[in-house]
Design a protein that fits this description.
The chain has 147 residues and is an alpha/beta fold. It has a domain of 70 residues: Nucleotidyltransferase, domain 5, CATH 3.30.420. It is 29% helix and 15% strand. The chain has a 5-stranded mixed sheet, with helices on one face.
Length: 147
Amino acid sequence: MKFPRNARIFRGQLDLAPVAGVVFLLVIFLLPQSTLVLPPGVEIRLPEVSGKPLPGPAEPRAVVAMDRQGQIYFDSQLVDAGQLRERLRQAVERTPDLALIIQADQEVRLESFFHLSKLAGEAGLQRVYLSGRPPLPPPPASPNPGP
């Protein structure tokens, strides 16, 4: 195959319209994938669980969160004990084999877990799980600064 020998390096001015078009296309495709708004929920620091990951429930589940002040959240809504019992009872009527996962802040007292387990039992739930998180990886070692 013969290649042309009269090819020259372009020395003119670049047109920015195609570059701007590509940038706008990237913005259009990447913007919906970003999280500009924080997801609703409660800030909870789960206790760290070391060792191999524990299995979670395979059956349908409901999640109850408790912050460090002891406030209870169900479906990201603040509820009291009576409302939680009633909403769990309604969830059990819809799905009989429902399991409850308790996500409680690491500063919550142990009595709160027993109280939530008792409410779950009164609502008809047979299985209650306590949620934890795996240990965080250690931070990267900082390079030694020179003397």
